[in-house]
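User: I'm preparing a small set of examples for a lab meeting where we compare how different chains pack in three dimensions. I only have the primary sequence for this one, and I'd like the structure in token form so I can line it up with the others. Please keep the answer compact; I'll paste it straight into my notes.
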Amino acid sequence: MMKKKFLDTLSPKSKQPTKEVQTEPLRSEINYVIDESGNVTDIAVKGNNENFNNEIKAAFLRANDGVKWKPSTKNGAVISYTMRLSMTMSFQ
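Assistant: Understood. Below is the structure token output for the 92-residue chain.
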């Protein structure tokens, strides 16, 4: 019964069995800026799989929802700072 409920939540396309196996690691890089106020801005994700990129961005946005970062400083002055985070997922 639980399996049927779960399958009912999926789109018809995703219910179809597939023989496609992911052999290449999924790679994404997310670049973002912590501005002078501690807000996350200018989020950009690139990588070798669009679905993985979208999931990385969605997870990043959820994780940073309502979060204020401590901004960087240089010579005592508050500055914006660009951050880069790489993600890789492999299936065996």
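A couple of notes for your slides: Helices lie at 2-9, 12-15, 50-63. Residues 28 and 47 are 4 Å apart (CA to CA).

User: Perfect, thanks.
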